[in-house]
Design the sequence.
């Protein structure tokens, strides 16, 4: 087993990996950019190494600096988390070349699955169904001709892509050119690779993915599905398991297909096979494989009863999986809500700023994976994910009820967040029935505005009481830098207008 | 004691009066009996008309944030009249940055005629591309940013003239 692991990531996932390392008695090395000098993951790790300026391209995406940090710190392995360098075969190879273990799949498997075109071909070869589409040489003229053959609506996707970046839905041929240009630009910037593929768009499709786990001794298992149909701008915001849609028969078929696709590329470690499911026909199609830990992995952990980060580390260290497929089962129901610094009432524009106060919900069946605490700052440089709330209960209704309570008990002050929007989705009758698909949020909640325009009286009472010399006994956390010393807000009498 | 707060365009008034162990809070003509159950930095627990409620709060400059039931409310000092945005100079439209971001690409030059909805420039923030579109038909009267430049929220990007 490793004695020291470097975590090449930030935010909640770095914090989550540190937790498991601590349990296993493994020392941790965090890396941080200038903007993250005081970030939670850097504060929590046993060691923290500066790796460069705030833009990710000069820090969290800099292979050389991270490998150098790992070597200098004496780490034996690197955990890449998700995003950043986690799906870069050259990074996995560079780690190997430096004598470090990459906690993830072999570089060849990343390469095979990292390219959406090659991944589709590999899945097809393994007998896994894929959607009609085009992968290959991608000059604009070729894409235009292929698009005409596939038909509209279709998706233009970055071959190197993921998370909806470099992806465009095109409804009419007239919009194709602008979509291709925009997708290329985004793909070039996000992945350093502007190649595109095309796929037929399946309306009202569900997104259902399977967690796989493979060791170095030829065992490949699946840890069941995650239903991820609740998305905005092609990014998941609520995930749950089991899927309210799958029948035992379809679950078994899809699980077997996931294992076959993983085996086809010699996969090792934890990965996720994403499928789209056409509910009209009850058919599923391979979408892509994420060759890394997934943001929504906690719901699988709760339902299957395994710590995925622990098994990633054990498998990378050469341990064999001690359980077989037949020994795994889904216990109860788990759901995850992603708490983002963004404004759901204004096109989900990301928000940035200080977290003046962040209070996490607690209680039986509630788990919070967060990367920030009160006093931290959400910067414009990185993803606006603040925390993930996860609940687990015996049944779906019970898990949803617990989540609604967890969202109510969350307090996030200082910036706009999507908590009220998540609450609105949880209360929706379609969602409660599990009748959702990937464009459902957009269709049902497009133009959503927060419901209560009038301030609750308790808010006004609290604002007055925390202002009043009648009750003022303690001040909140230190004011933000640059706070106006003469602000009447600091004076005990506030805006008192007279008795 | 009376307190005034502004939230959005609304101004609210709270009259607070001690009545033995509790307070009487009068808001919009209705009086509530409020007991302060406990207080710690950033948190106050009340019993309001018999019902317990926990609120979290923080103050920054002239703003006070209060959260209850997972929703956050921003209260400010009331201002006599909210300063109108200095938009519409020379009868045109001012296009501003919706958030702090970096200018990724500029797709127009000064003097270009633009149609409502046409993409003027691309911003990027938090790995997301944001298209800034023309709010109305007109001409690009002034282009105030360049590719690669960092912009602040509400910074003027483009002036559209008639």
Sequence:
């Amino acid at each position: 087993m490793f004695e020291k692991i470097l975590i090449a990531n930030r935010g909640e996932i770095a914090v989550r990996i540190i937790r498991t390392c601590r349990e296993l008695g493994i020392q941790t090395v965090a890396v941080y950019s200038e903007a993250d000098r005081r970030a939670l993951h850097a504060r929590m790790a046993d060691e923290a190494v500066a790796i460069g300026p705030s833009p990710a391209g000069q820090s969290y995406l800099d292979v050389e600096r991270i490998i150098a940090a790992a070597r200098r710190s004496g780490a034996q392995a690197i955990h890449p988390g998700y995003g950043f360098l986690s799906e870069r075969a050259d990074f996995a190879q560079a780690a190997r070349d430096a004598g470090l273990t990459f906690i993830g799949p072999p570089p060849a498997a990343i390469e095979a699955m990292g390219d959406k075109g090659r991944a589709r071909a590999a899945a097809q070869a393994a007998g896994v169904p894929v959607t009609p589409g085009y992968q290959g040489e991608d000059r604009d003229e070729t894409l235009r001709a292929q698009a005409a053959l596939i038909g509209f609506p279709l998706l233009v996707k970055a071959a190197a892509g993921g998370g909806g970046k470099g992806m465009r839905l095109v409804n009419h041929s007239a919009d194709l050119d602008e979509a291709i240009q925009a997708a290329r630009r985004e793909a070039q910037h996000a992945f350093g690779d502007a190649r595109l593929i095309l796929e037929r768009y399946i309306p009202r499709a569900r997104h259902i993915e399977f967690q796989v786990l493979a060791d170095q001794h030829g065992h490949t298992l699946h840890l069941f599905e995650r239903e991820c149909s609740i998305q905005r701008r092609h990014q998941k915001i609520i995930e749950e398991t089991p899927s309210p849609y799958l029948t035992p028969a379809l679950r078994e078929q899809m699980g077997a297909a996931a294992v076959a696709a993983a085996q086809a590329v010699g996969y090792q470690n934890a990965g996720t096979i994403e499928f789209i499911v056409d509910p009209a026909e009850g058919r599923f199609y391979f979408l892509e494989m994420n060759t890394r830990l997934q943001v929504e992995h906690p719901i699988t952990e709760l339902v299957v009863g395994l710590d995925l980060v622990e098994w990633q580390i054990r498998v990378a260290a050469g341990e064999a999986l001690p359980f077989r497929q037949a020994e795994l089962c889904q216990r109860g129901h788990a759901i995850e809500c992603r708490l983002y610094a963004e404004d759901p009432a204004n096109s989900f524009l990301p928000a940035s700023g200080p977290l003046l106060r962040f209070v996490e919900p607690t209680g039986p069946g509630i788990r919070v994976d967060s990367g920030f605490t009160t006093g931290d700052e959400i910067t414009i440089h990185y993803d606006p994910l603040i925390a993930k709330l996860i609940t687990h209960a015996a049944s779906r209704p019970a898990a949803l009820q617990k989540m609604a309570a967890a969202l109510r008990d969350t307090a996030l002050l200082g910036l706009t967040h999507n908590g009220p929007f998540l609450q609105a989705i949880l209360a929706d009758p379609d969602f409660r029935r599990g009748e959702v698909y990937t464009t459902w949020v957009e269709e049902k909640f497009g133009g959503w505005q927060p419901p209560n325009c009038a301030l609750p009286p308790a808010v006004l009472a609290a604002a007055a009481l925390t202002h009043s010399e009648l009750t003022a006994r303690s001040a909140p956390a230190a004011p933000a830098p640059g706070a106006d010393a003469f602000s009447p807000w600091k004076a005990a009498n506030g805006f008192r207008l007279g008795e | 004691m009376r307190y005034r707060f502004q939230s959005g365009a609304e101004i609210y008034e709270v009259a607070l009066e001690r009545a033995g162990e509790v307070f009487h809070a009068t808001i919009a003509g209705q009086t509530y009996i409020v007991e302060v159950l406990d207080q710690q930095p950033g948190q106050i627990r009340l019993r309001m008309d018999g019902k317990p409620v926990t609120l979290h709060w923080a103050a920054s400059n002239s703003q006070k944030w209060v959260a209850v039931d997972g929703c956050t409310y921003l209260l400010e000092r009331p201002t006599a009249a909210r300063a109108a945005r200095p938009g519409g100079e020379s009868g045109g439209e001012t296009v501003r940055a919706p958030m702090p971001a970096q200018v990724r690409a500029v797709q127009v030059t000064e003097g270009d005629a633009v149609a409502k909805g046409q993409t003027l420039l691309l911003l990027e923030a938090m790995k997301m591309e944001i298209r800034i579109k023309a709010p109305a038909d007109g001409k690009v009267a002034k282009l105030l940013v360049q590719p690669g430049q960092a912009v602040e929220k509400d910074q003027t990007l483009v002036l559209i003239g008639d």
Notes: The CA atoms of residues 63 and 76 of chain B lie 5 Å apart. The first strand of chain B starts at residue 2 and ends at 7. Chain B is about 0% helix and 60% strand. The radius of gyration of chain B is 23 Å.
